[in-house]
Amino acid sequence: MTPDRQDKDTPSPLGNLKDALGGYLSASGHSLVGKAGERIGGLTDRLTASADGNGDGNGNGNGGSKGGGSSKSGAGSVKATHIMEVVDIGVPLRTVYDQWTQLQEFSDFTKGVRSVNSEDEVTSNWNVKVGPSSRSWKATVLEQVPDERIVWTSEGAKGSTRGVITFHELAPRLTRVVVVVEYYPAGFFEKTGNLWRAQGRRLRLDLKHFARHVTLTDEEEIEGWRGEIRDGEVVRTHEEAMEEEAADDRDDDDYEDDEDDDYEDYEDEDGDYDEDDDEDEDDEDSDYDDEHEDDRRARRRR
Question: Where in the sequence is the domain holding 46, given as residue range(s)?
Answer without folding.
Answer: 32-62
